[in-house]
Amino acid sequence: MAPIADTSFTAPASTHATADIRLLIFGLPPDCSPQDVRGLLHHCGIRLGDAAEHWAVDLAAGAGELEETIATVHHLPDRLIAARLADGLRSRRFHGRALQGWVPVMDWS
Question: What pairs with residue 25 in β-bridges?
């Protein structure tokens, strides 16, 4: 039987990273705060410890009639963690709204 993979992550993102890996979150309510977003990340199936507190969160109003907020989470340590968080967000609802999580293919540096 294969060992269970350790899904914990406790170290903050490196300040020497060459690329800024980001996570985009769609479907948040207009009154959402950066702390709400960080709280959501703790419910995505990865033990983050206090790592999420080190990640910058920007919020922007979505366009159109949806009255949603779009969050950008900056400085994630690697693509695998970002993708796992995005998968976890896709199975969640926040204040009755279905969430979508996406990791851009191109790095922002």
Answer: 71, 101
- With vertex at residue 103, the alpha carbon angle to CA 54 and CA 35, rounded to the nearest 5 degrees, is 35
In single-letter form, the type of residue at position 44 comes to C
CA distance 67 to 71: 13
pLDDT tens digits along 10-61: 444 444 445 788 999 999 999 999 999 999 998 888 888 888 888 899 999 8
Question: Which of 45, 69, 49, 47 shows the shortest CA–CA distance to 57?
Answer: 69
What is this structure's pTM? 0.76
